[in-house]
Design brief:
heterotrimer; A mainly alpha (about 350); B alpha/beta (about 180); C mainly alpha (about 400); A: about 350 residues; mainly alpha; B: alpha/beta; five-stranded mixed sheet; two-stranded parallel sheet; 4 helices; about 20% helix; about 20% strand
């Protein structure tokens, strides 16, 4: 067994298998949570029958249904681009999980440039969206794709800048290193050492910017203009059906999982919780924090209308970017002073 | 209603210079000449700025749908428009006659922008030409539609093909000649 | 101009064209599009995000009611007219009935008038609740929909309890109303009036309606993004509104306090106290707020009417076969969407010689080409939705 684990390729294959199973699995749980939570927020019951109790099997049933549907390609579509687009979206999201630490050991690869890699891989999905919108040969899809691209440019910047604050404070870009930095004792109350996550160590503004930008990256309400059902008729998703639509769908929820996991790691202490053994409880702790953030995203989605495209841009450029820059300046100054 | 229809009709008739007005059944109605149609609207716009609707009636003694008038009427189109104001709820119907062989009248869409669509509707339904209208194309019907549906000569084809199920009705239909079953 | 001339020109005289050649794009919305509430088609010529020109294409729902009315008897037309604006079926019947009754010179019993009034206001509440819920949906918020429709269901249940129909009551008779409650001939004899407990249930339902109005005020009107999307968007100045015949809440949103319930006497509204809410700017926000406030006022009217409803006959004596004497009458009513009127021309037959239907949505929509010029594409949805039209009411 240990010989097998020592082999780089065997270990990599095993890790990839775990990611490939866990990420869609968790995404399905998030889908189910969205169905149920939105239902209760709207005084509905939500899924009830699938699976026998509380409709727990609804996401599975939906997935099976989508797989049976015909995989339509519009006559004028650019076939290869159209077909490969959903895979790029899903792959970009999945790649992020390479650097998400579930415990000090449970990580595919603790890269030195971990967070840098995550941000780079996370924005690959937008290229897939743009491809989908362009190749569908549909004006609404094209507008959706272009809006997604415009949104990426506007929100990638505050997202990265918000992360810079954390990186300065932690002094490393490694995800495990960032968690370890938050696990260290920040100050003492008598003999009792207090360690706080970065969100409570002054990065609360960074956290807010990160979450706002993450919502925009994920195209979720109030920033869901690229799919805007009542305007663009689902935008870049309009022409997709069957298994390819499922990939987009799964990609969206996997994206929520990924963004929440990164946010928890950067700002909320990741797998670390004071008094609990990270080696044993790490995954549970992280999933708890992820659950909290996912709930927040779902809550926002079912409460807010969507902004207009130009309002979104002005929010990004006039508020979030300057605020993030200010955050960096203050963080850097304090880092030098103390 | 704060203004009585008869006073209103009289006053409006005075403004547009007409001596034919009525106020039966609470509806103030003032008749103007066809050549005074646009001028009458212009004169009334200050006092009655609210443009409600514009339409027409096809008067014919012989009809292919519905019941014919009990007494013979003069063959003509009657163009109606309804104006009002919002202060005291005054409302007056203006009316003018248009001969059928010369179904033309000046457009009031320059006076009331809202008349644009109403005139397009009246034009396609009755075949009345509104001269000076900026865009007198069909509003409801497909471009290839032939005929003017609201003219009394235009048959209701579904009724010709399959009469209304008169046997189950208690009373006979307006277009049915001999009711077979009256109850 | 030679090259030498150009060189000798002062730099301020040289005209440099830096404007890019951007051909206008034609954007087609509908007739199948989620935001058009049915089958409206908008052909927009856009330059980037700015709308140059919009042409609404209507008629996909044209059913030729004016022609059909000419081959039907007066009682049969009731079934036609309540399908014009199907969101508030009951309210459509009123102006037609009143016009016919005026021509026949029938005095409708007071109790019947009160029942008509209560049900008309209920139709208003149900129609406005649809608007309150679907408008945020168009702007991307889906939760208000469920909350408002839940309370609308109570109102529809009450209408169904009295009339037997949720959307198309077909309940008015010339000279009064005829409750269909209790099907079957034996039961019909005893339950020819409002169903038992109707008045109490109405009071309860009105309380629920008020509560959901408060919820809406918190959830929608207090929402920053909603304000951002609607304030200052789609302004209709009062003069334009009047010129285009915009009526109802859309007109009152522009600050004109014109309400036919106050000025006309088709139903005994003068016996009740209620306010006519008016907006200030005539933008989408004002049109939303006015409708929200109107629900509260409608609930207020219903409460008063339920408390003071007189007893008595439900229908005046009318001949078995209805013939309307020769004459013309135009009766208009304040429907949820605006002024709905019927110009009834009778030549003494069993059916009208001509029936002109003046529907509110038609005129309200006709202001659209003027209103959308120069606006931004994403605002089409916000402006279109705020006019609260029903395609059946536009096309008739």
């Amino acid at each position: 067994m240990s010989a097998l684990l020592d082999s780089f390729w065997a270990l990599l294959a095993l890790k990839l298998l775990v990611v490939a199973l866990v990420v869609p699995g968790v995404s399905m749980v998030i889908i189910y949570a969205e169905l149920k939570i939105s239902a209760h927020m709207q005084s509905r019951v939500g899924p009830y029958f699938a699976g026998g109790r509380w409709g727990w099997a609804q996401p599975l049933a939906d997935g099976l249904k989508f797989m049976q549907k015909e995989d339509l390609v519009p006559a004028d579509a650019d076939r290869p681009v159209y077909k490969v687009a959903p895979m790029i979206v899903l792959a970009g999201t999945m790649a992020v999980f390479v650097i998400v630490p579930f415990s000090p050991k449970l990580i595919v690869q603790d890269l030195d440039l971990g967070i840098f890699f995550a941000l780079a891989a996370g924005s690959v999905g937008t290229i897939g969206v743009l491809m989908a919108g362009w190749s569908s040969a549909n004006k609404y899809s094209l507008m959706g794709g272009l809006r997604a691209a415009a949104q990426l440019i506007a929100y990638e910047l505050p997202l990265v800048l918000a992360v810079v604050g954390v990186v300065i404070q932690a002094g490393t870009m490694s995800m495990v290193g960032i968690v370890e930095a938050q696990a260290q004792t920040w100050f003492h109350v008598g003999d009792f050492g207090v360690s706080l996550p970065f969100a409570l160590q002054g990065q609360i503004i960074g956290f807010g910017i990160f979450m706002t930008a993450a919502l925009a990256e994920l195209n979720r309400t109030p920033f869901d203009m690229p799919i805007a059902e009542s305007e663009l008729v689902m935008g870049y998703l309009t022409e997709y059906s069957g298994i390819r639509f499922t990939m987009f769908f799964l990609g969206e929820y996997a994206g929520m999982f990924a963004m929440s996991a990164i946010a928890s790691t950067l700002f909320l202490g990741g797998y670390y919780f004071p008094g609990l053994d990270s080696e044993v409880f790490g995954p549970v702790i992280l999933m708890g924090k992820v659950g909290l953030l996912v709930f927040l995203m779902i809550w926002i989605r079912w409460t807010f209308p969507r902004l207009r495209e130009d309002q979104l841009q002005s929010l990004a450029w006039k508020w979030l970017v300057p605020l993030a820059l200010l955050n960096i300046a203050v963080t850097a100054t304090l880092k030098v002073v103390f | 209603m704060t203004v009585s229809p008869s006073e209103l009709a009289e006053r409006v008739a005075g403004i547009v210079g007409s001596d034919r007005f009525s106020s039966d059944y609470g509806t103030a109605k003032v008749r103007v000449g066809r050549d005074r149609w646009t001028a009458a609207h212009e004169a009334l716009k200050a006092e009655l700025p609210y443009f409600s609707w514009l339409s027409a009636i096809d008067w014919a003694s012989e009809v292919s749908v519905g019941d014919p008038p009990e007494e013979a009427v003069e063959d003509r189109f009657e163009v109606l428009s309804c104006l009002g104001n919002t202060d005291d709820g005054a409302m007056v119907v203006l009316s003018t006659d248009v001969a059928k062989d010369d179904a033309r009248i000046d457009s009031v869409s320059g006076v009331f922008g809202g008349a644009n669509w109403h005139e397009r509707e009246a034009a396609e339904m009755f075949g009345i030409e509104f001269t000076g209208h900026p865009n007198l194309t069909k509003l409801y019907l497909v471009d290839s539609f032939e005929g003017h549906p609201l003219r009394k000569t235009f048959p209701l084809l579904s009724r010709e093909v399959k009469p209304w199920p008169g046997t189950v009705d208690v009373e006979d239909m307006p277009s049915t000649e001999n009711p077979e079953d009256a109850g | 101009m030679t090259a030498g001339d150009r060189l000798s020109m002062h730099h301020s005289e040289v005209q440099v064209s830096v404007e890019l050649q951007t051909p206008d794009m034609t954007l087609n919305l509908g007739p199948q599009h989620p935001s058009t509430h049915g089958v409206l088609r908008l052909v927009a010529r856009v330059d980037g995000e700015v709308i140059k020109e919009v042409e609404p294409v209507i008629g996909y729902m044209h059913r030729g009611y004016e022609k059909l009315a000419e081959v039907r008897t007066y009682p049969q037309i009731t079934a036609l007219v309540n399908r014009i604006d199907w969101v508030s079926g009951f309210a459509n019947e009123i102006p037609f009935m009143v016009a016919t009754e005026r021509l026949m010179e029938i005095e409708t019993p007071e109790r019947a008038q009160y029942i008509r009034l209560i049900l008309t206001e209920m139709a208003r509440i149900s129609s406005h609740l649809i608007f309150l819920s679907s408008y945020p949906l168009e702007l991307g918020a889906s939760t208000p929909l469920m909350h408002a429709l839940r309370e609308r269901e109570r109102v529809l249940d009450l209408i169904e309890g009295v009339t037997g129909g949720r959307f198309h009551p077909n309940f008015n008779r010339i000279g009064g109303v005829r409750p269909a409650a209790g099907a079957g001939s034996a039961q019909k004899k005893v339950s020819q009036d409002l169903p038992e407990g109707f008045l109490d249930q109405t009071r309860q339902a009105m309380q629920h309606v008020r509560d959901v109005c408060d919820d809406m005020e918190d959830l929608v009107l207090g929402n920053e993004i909603f304000l951002e999307r609607t304030k200052g968007i789609g302004i209709i100045p009062p003069s334009k509104a009047l010129e285009y015949g915009v009526s109802g809440p859309s007109l009152r949103g522009s600050g004109v306090g014109f309400d036919l319930r106050k000025t006309d006497d088709y139903l005994p509204y003068s016996e009740f106290e209620f306010d006519v809410p008016t907006g200030e700017n005539g933008d989408c926000f004002d049109r939303y707020w006015v409708r929200l406030e109107e629900i509260r006022q409608a609930a207020r009217i219903i409460d008063q009417a339920v408390d003071s409803i007189p007893s008595g006959e439900l229908q005046a004596k009318v001949p078995r076969i209805i013939k309307v004497p020769k004459g013309e009458a135009y009766v208009r009513a304040e429907n949820p969407k605006g002024e709905m009127g019927f110009y009834v021309v009778s030549e003494g037959g069993r059916g009208p010689y001509r029936l002109k239907i003046r529907s509110a949505s038609f005129s309200n929509l006709s202001v659209l080409p003027w209103l959308l010029e120069g606006q931004l594409v994403p605002d089409i949805i916000a402006i279109l939705g705020s006019l609260d039209f029903v395609l059946g009411d536009v096309d008739r």
